Amino acid sequence: MNILICDDDPDIRMTMRRTLRGYDITEAGSPREALDVLKTTTFDAIVSDYSMGADKDGLELLHHVKLLYPDTIRFLVTANREIDIAARAVNEGAVHRYFLKPWDDAKLRSALEIVLASKHQRSA
Q1: Element (H, E) at 27
Q2: What pLDDT sits at residue 86?
Q3: Computed from CA positions of residues 25, 27, 32, 37, in that sequence, does the dihedral angle turn out positive or negative?
Q4: What is the pTM of this model?
């Protein structure tokens, strides 16, 4: 399984890589970099931070991924506790799951495994 991690903080990307060990992980430091990587590589899932101080936030990135790569599982992680971000993410259908930082490794990994298994059952 290929997973793309998008976060502007290299320490967070390293921690997420540890959480998701066993998967093939690719990292991107910005939404623009993530979109560039998506043009050349197919991913089963993308896990993106919300706030990256870039030209786009993580939710906008996941909207683009939904439109361009609808089969890609989309997770949003954020330290931002504003409820409107979570509501937008879910109501607009841009994400499959939403996690607050610091995330619980086991819960994030389990949620990813469940969504990926469900996706593969539908496609089989």
Answers
A1: strand 24-28
A2: 78
A3: negative
A4: 0.92
Structure tokens at 8: 């502007």
Distance of CA 74 to the CA centre of its chain: 5
Instruction: Please identify every stretch of the chain with a pLDDT value under 50, giving residue numbers as ranges.
Output: none
**Residue 54 three-state SS:** coil
Phi-psi region of 107 (alpha: psi -120 to 50; beta: other; left: phi over 0): alpha
What is the rounded end-to-end Cα distance, in angstroms, of the chain?
A: 16
List C-alpha distances in Å: 108 to 3, 55, 70: 13, 27, 21
Instruction: Identify which of 61, 72, 4, 2 has the alpha carbon closest to the alpha carbon of residue 32.
Output: 61
